[in-house]
Amino acid sequence: GPALQVPDKTVDSVCPYCGVGCQLTYHVKDNTLIAVSGRDGPANHGRLCVKGRYGFDYVRHPQRLTVPLVRREGVPKRADETLDPARWQEVFREATWDEALDLAAAGWLRIRDRHGPRALAGFGSAKGSNEEAYLFQKLVRTGFRSHNVDHCTRLCHASSVAALLEGIGSAAVSNPVMDVMQAELVIVIGANPSVNHPVAATWIKNAVREGTRLVLCDPRHSELARHAWRHLAFKPDTDVALLNALLHVIVTEGLVDEAFIAGRTEGFEALREHVQGYSPEAMAPLCGIEAGVIREVGRAYATSRASMILWGMGVSQHVHGTDNARCLIALALATGQIGRPGTGLHPLRGQNNVQGASDAGLIPMMLPDYQRVTDPGARAKFERLWGVPLDDRPGLTVVEVMNAALAGEIRGMYIMGENPAMSDPDVNHARQALAALDHLVVQDIFLTETAALADVVLPASAFPEKTGTFTNTDRTVQLGRQALEPPGQARQDLWIIQALAQRLGLPWRYTDVSEVFDEMRHSMPSIAGITWERLQREHAVAYPCTQEGAPGQPVVFTERFPTPSGRGRFVPADIVPAAERPDADYPWVLITGRQLEHWHTGSMTRRSRVLDAIEPDPVALIHPLDLEALGARPGEVITLQSRRGEVSLYARADESIPRGAVFVAFCYYEAAANRLTNPALDPVAKIPELKYCAVRVRVGGT
Ligand code: SF4
């Protein structure tokens, strides 16, 4: 066999994939990664999943962008085009960095002068570092001069964030994942951590082995169900019915924590009144869970010494996503199951830096550290720091930007490291919107479906090619370190953002990433105490860390909530049905999500040899009895059609899928699940309903 390779050097860093934030070590030989090993970080203690261990060779994939590209004159943008990266020369020509950067900035300035600052928008990335996110939003706010800046958190946890800010004044988790080891009972709802947060799932399973009772609330019979004390396989879209029934049990059986409610909360009377009408007996037919089981789980959650709730996008990606999260917050507040080790609320963050990108201000209504753009004091602070007047109106969110682009109101965009042509709901609409732009600049490592619609493409650096901080789902700020040089003329993202900012007339002079971090910590109280030197020394510090030398706080809300009154607030929720229910024409429910081996839109993992070898083809998961009823065999091609589009994929029999539903991961460009999804929005958080829409299924391809 091949000789064992000996690395020239090892570099300590973190995993580029999910929000668990496992620490790892790169083994490098001749500027190439030859292996990855787990490191003893606070979230992983040496563990890694298949993505962290094997998903790294995308960085040397032959399709990496290595030269700036500009669209050839006269080549139209076609929304329905799926550009084969090997045929890029038909659409683009190579350019020098100076030409590409000049063209990029000149296009934006032309639009800003003619149509005003609000005709421009930027999407940053939850896969970039905190420093990149911070500079990106600073460029949009001070260079474009609007708050039209957002990123994919809008598509994953915007509703959790809205409910948490409203209820307890902070959108970050109250306790780290590892606290499951100290919990007596853990509720996992609308999440499939074995697939999406695999190392977190191992801690949940370890806790179960030590005696923790796991309650899994999920319509799917996911792998974690094997470890559950109770699996509540409720009908899709009936979260509020189930959660209000649990609250009903706790309130009417006197299981609330009176002292906690009196001392730490407000608005309980309204909740008490509200949940009277949601008895388990009344809700059982709706949500499909027996009343006795609901009562048993409600009692166990309320009376255990420490109960913790973790949730994922099965909760958040609904038109009632904010309401779902409001119910979870009410459960914790009513029972005092928050503010102590082993308790609390943990929305499992998806991407490696979705927490940090939000903290850094990649959101249209918030400046860094969740300081509202409508707050004159917050604006004045950043105007002093940045030396530019700021707009006093919040910007548009991801889906709103796409709608505005189609309406001709947004004319120019800057997209760094995101792929809305694959990740947005109803991507046919999103691609039409991107194609309608006068000027699109995309900064990425591959010619993604979004980059294929660009005017200027800027070749960026991959995760192991740069140094920066990343904040995991536990609020822990960790240092990612550069292990490789970018290929060809690809440049560091921080360099690219700064080069563009300078061409927009901004006098930026950062010479090192640590200077950006330093500016951040002086404007963001939550990380004020974290110094670059300390990160280099300790690798990871949990915030809030407001003073230098302070230890950082893995568990928060121990004495008060960061709300104006210091109290947590109950917000009752009514049942709101999905925007598009199955009917005679479209009788199936489509649930979208992810697969263990593939990450989001697949641009990295489908170019990683081992991961792509394990899951090479687009598949639709469907219950074997449903498959039989359709007259299809496993492996046969089936076509899913919604009111917005259709895709064909291989059918895979999977007993975990509820009857009448079909599950598709959104990572397959050749069968993009988001051609089907519904862009209907949660009215509070503007998150689209990616977890539920109606489709029809037929055997055979298109
Ligand atoms: Fe990476 Fe997440 Fe897997 Fe850890 S669990 S190795 S952070 S993908």
**Strand-pairing-aware structural class:** alpha/beta
Q: Would you count the extended β strands for me?
A: 30
The ligands found in this model are: iron/sulfur cluster
How big is the Rg?
A: 24 Å
Across the major sheet, the strand order is 5-4-18-17-16-6-7
- How much helix is in the residues? 25-40%
Low-confidence stretches: none
* Overall mean pLDDT: 95
As an assembly, this protein is single chain
Residue fraction in strands: 15-25%
Main pleated sheet: 7 strands, mixed
> Alpha-carbon distance between the termini?
44 Å
Q: Number of helical segments?
A: 24
Global shape? globular
Task: Explain what the structure shows.
The chain is an alpha/beta fold and 702 residues long. Helices cover 31% and strands 19% of the residues. The protein has 24 helices and 30 strands. The protein has a 7-stranded mixed beta sheet, with helices on both faces. It has a 6-stranded mixed beta barrel with strand order 23-27-24-26-25-30. A hairpin with an 8-residue loop joins β1 (9-14) and β2. α17 (398-406) crosses α19 (427-436). The two termini are 44 Å apart. Bound molecules: iron/sulfur cluster (SF4). Iron/sulfur cluster binds next to α1 and α7. One of its GO terms (molecular function) is formate dehydrogenase (NAD+) activity. It comes from Caldimonas aquatica. In the C-terminal section; belongs to the prokaryotic molybdopterin-containing oxidoreductase family. Keywords: 4Fe-4S, Iron, Iron-sulfur, Metal-binding, Oxidoreductase, Repeat. This is Formate dehydrogenase subunit alpha.
